[in-house]
Amino acid sequence: MRRRRRRAVLLLVLLLAVGGTAVGVTELVHRPADQPSSTAGDTRLANGLGGAGVRVEPSGYPTEGSGGFAAADGDSPVRGSGGPLRRYRVAVEQGTGQDVDDFAATVDGVLGDPRSWIASGQLRLQRVAVAAAADFTIYLASPATSERMCAEGGLTTERYTSCRLPGQVIVNLARWMEAVPNYGAPLETYRTYVINHEVGHELGEGHQACPRPGAPAPVMQQQTYGLDGCVANAWPYVDGARYEGAPVDGV
């Protein structure tokens, strides 16, 4: 009798232990998607180690993030020697594994460079943290989110290109991570180009054509779709002068 009771108790304990483990796994798998997560949690999500339904590219970035954005804190110095002041805000989609401060530092470095738009002497730029103080926001968004955002303004990007809507510069994470095939320049050059190009639209610039084969591509050329014989160029000012191509009608 005692042996039977002892076996029964051991069996009951074993069943409870197994059952408790199974419940723990179920809770982990079915954790609500809107539950707040830490930075480490966002990184695991982007690397495909968590978050059911998140599609991750071979290079390691997700095709779709949370849809929510985190903005960079603090204000940058005013860059530029004269002209009206345009204030911009920088935000990164959460769940993409990208650091908002790193992205903001890159944007600040590009827009504050003497080869960028401030070289005209007729424009000053400053990054701000408060949305109400910003004239426009520069977003880094996953391909799916950027497509939805651009579509709200009637633009079709097929999850491939970046875009600009009034008050919104939307940089596609896929292009930020991979640039484009046959660009012929480092990723850093493409990143500089896409910032200057889309911000150029926000400043009123239209698309331009390649001047001639072998020449630098104007920054307002649609370099994402090809260079048309030009070579990659990320800056609106080259050798201290505004560098442009012929306007492209209708775009």
How does this model look, in words?
The chain is of the alpha/beta class. The protein has a domain at 69-206: Collagenase (Catalytic Domain). Helices cover 31% and strands 14% of the residues. The protein has six helices and eight strands. The strands form two sheets. Strands 1, 2, 3, 4, 5 and 6 form a six-stranded mixed β-sheet that branches. Strands 7-8 form a two-stranded antiparallel ribbon. The radius of gyration is 25 Å and the shape is globular. It starts with a helix and ends in a 9-residue tail after the last strand.
Quick summary:
Residues 32-84 are annotated as: Disordered. This protein has 251 residues and is an alpha/beta fold. The protein has helices at residues 2-29, 39-46, 100-111, 143-151, 173-178, 187-202, and strands at residues 69-71, 85-93, 124-127, 136-141, 163-165, 168-172, 237-238, 241-242.
* Protein structure class: alpha/beta
Shape: globular
Number of helices: 6
Task: Let me know the number of strands.
Answer: 8
The CA-CA distance between the termini, in Å, is: 89 Å
Averaged pLDDT, please?
Answer: 82
In the CATH hierarchy, what is the class of the domain at 69-206?
Alpha Beta
Tell me about the largest β-sheet: 6 strands, mixed
Beta strand % = 5-15%
Proportion of residues in helical segments:
25-40%
